Amino acid sequence: MTPISRRTLLAAGAAAGALAILPAAARTLDAPLLLNDASQLNTTPVARLWRRKAGLDGAWLDELRTELKTAAAEGRPVAVGAARHSMGGQALPRDGVAMSLDVDVASRDPWIALDPATRTYRVAAGGRWGQVIKVLDAAGFSPAVMQSNNDFGVGATLSVNAHGWPTPYGPFGATVHSFRLMLGSGELVTCSHAENPELFALAVGGYGLFGIVTDVDLEMVENTLLRPSFELTPSAEIGPRLIAALDRDSSVRMAYGRLSVDARAFLREAMLVTYRPVPGAPPPADSGGLGLDFARDVFRAQIGSDAGKRARWYIETVLTPAATSGETSRNTLLNEPVANLAGQERSRTDILHEYFLPPEGLEPFLAACSAIIPASRQDLLNVTLRYVDQDRASVLSYAHGRRVGAVMLFSQRMTLVDDEDMRAMTERMIDACLEAGGSFYLPYRLHARKDQFARAYPRLDEFLDRKRRYDPELLFRNLMWDRYFAV
Predict the structure, then answer these.
(1) Nearest to 276, CA basis, from 330, 317, 222
(2) Residue 287: pLDDT above 80?
(3) Residue 113: partners with Cβ closer than 8 Å, 6 or more residues away
(4) For labelling, which of 80, 303, 353, 410 has a CA lying 20 to 30 Å from the CA of 343?
(5) Each residue of 69-88: pLDDT tens digit?
(6) Which alpha helices (DSSP H) does 90-195 contain, by range?
(7) Same domain flag for 191 and 310
(8) 3-state class percentages of the chain: helix first, strand second, coil last, to nearest 5
(9) Same domain, 385 and 298
(10) 9 CB contacts (<8 Å, ≥6 apart)?
(11) Sorting pLDDT into bands at 50, 70 and 90, what band is 31?
(12) Is residue 456 part of a domain?
């Protein structure tokens, strides 16, 4: 951890929130422009924040070239972000130029274009998934793959090669037909499997280290009405059962697993939920309902409370399956903002981990976690399991075969003691994951050791070699680069 973040972990981190910006006019040598990310633990000084409403017409590209040229002349790093929901400064350039792209949905300048005949759409990189869903929903379509929340930008999703929970897909890159990328030189190149394929594989999941994504051509699928099925199972069996459910029934369109986190059945009980199409017209996509406040209160009541965790498990596994058919549209399931379950305690922050295990490796990993996590200071609030097909698109692939992704959400106190404890716990969990034949996801806290990074990502040396070829001046850098690769 850098000196400034250690000094400001409590004061600046809590005060800054997920994105802290001081007006330029208020800046002094003692009060630089500060940015943070969703962790609230990465308060970072930057030289300036460059924001643009960037559509598909290309009128803004000359401004982008000029800014890149200026940053290079000043010797400043550049990093682009959207919602900055990463948790390790992956969108933060220390003393550099932080770029933020967005779209103007009210403008006449196009930012999204649908092609129903080919079931593809072209979208500006700054478009948020909630905006994309609104347009696709009106036309009867849905994103093939996106994250489980709608706050994020399309270009950011490509840069972290995110995955969701629609089946039978792998990470986002598998649904990308092409994209345009502005290199540090200002050259705008098209990347696809046929055109600049090497750069395609580097930029997908490349964390913005090869250039600025300007727009993306993507697959879309039919929006359908879905009904869930619920199945309780021991957690030792859920990995193979998830894979078997998809192999046995091709009608499954979305699937996830959930694990109990209360002390009585910690990581030993599981529920598998699968969604299949049913007849009927999907209702318009929404992002919440009358029960939203109740769901948030139930979720947040788990913090520090084993009774709260048992109550939530009972609601999810007994009351919810019995109380409703659960019929909903594919788009409604995807159209969920982070804020729906977000915490508001200024002394705590929510920290995500994600591990990708072969189905048979999930059980030994969970067994290790059942000893590692209770011995730490961390409060585990949720574990969601998702199917991830093999990733063949990215050099930094985290799914070397069919995988079960274990998404873990912790509530962490914002103290140095708790942050160091989180680092130590994370290292032990990564070791357990690697021993089980798995890997871990990179958009979160930078707590992995360098040897763990290299073991989980066997093409890392190739990635670094190409980075220096395509970006010899190392213009595109962020805190992740500084932590692992700066010399």
Answers:
(1) 330
(2) no
(3) 56, 121, 122, 123
(4) 80
(5) 999 999 999 999 988 999 99
(6) 129-138, 154-160
(7) no
(8) 35, 25, 40
(9) yes
(10) 1, 41, 43, 414, 415, 416, 419
(11) low
(12) no
CA 228 to chain CA centroid, Å, is 24
Tell me the HSE value of 433 on the side-chain side, using a 13 A CA sphere: 27
Phi and psi angles of residue 67, each rounded to the nearest 5 degrees, phi first: -65, -40
Note whether 191 and 162 are within 8 A (CB): no
Q: Is residue 458 part of a domain?
A: no
Q: Are 260 and 313 in contact (CB under 8 A)?
A: yes
Residue from 423, 70, 433, 63 nearest 214 by CA = 63
Q: What are 327's two structure tokens?
A: 């019929």
Same domain, 187 and 238: no
Hey, what are 213's tokens? Answer: 């994504």
Residues 356/133, Cβ–Cβ less than 8 Å: no
Q: Considering 203, 222, 241, which residue would you say is the last residue of a domain?
A: 222
* CATH number of the domain that residue 207 is part of: 3.30.465.10
For residue 339 the two structure tokens come to: 């804020």
* One domain, residues 208 and 251: no
Cβ atoms of residues 264 and 308 within 8 Å: no
Residue 29 has pLDDT above 80, yes or no: no
**Domain span holding position 202:** 112-222
Indicate whether 330 and 368 sit together in one domain. yes
Round to whole Å and give the CA distance between 203 and 208. 7
Q: How far apart are the first and last CA of the chain?
A: 16
418-438 pLDDT per residue, tens: 999 999 999 999 999 999 999
333 and 443 in a single domain? The answer is yes
Q: What is the DSSP letter of 105?
A: T
pLDDT per residue over 244-267, tens digit each? 999 999 999 999 999 999 999 999
The answer to whether residue 464 sits within a structural domain is: no
Structural domain contains residue 106: no
Residues with Cβ within 8 Å of residue 214, at least 6 apart in sequence: 54, 58, 61, 64, 124, 125, 155, 179, 180, 181, 182, 188
The total number of structural domains that make up the chain: 3
Average pLDDT over the chain reads 91
Of 192, 222, 252, the residue at which a domain comes to its end is: 222
The percent of residues in the chain predicted with pLDDT above 70, rounded, is: 92
Same domain, yes or no: 393 and 282: yes
Residue 368's nearest CA partner among 450, 326, 430 is 430
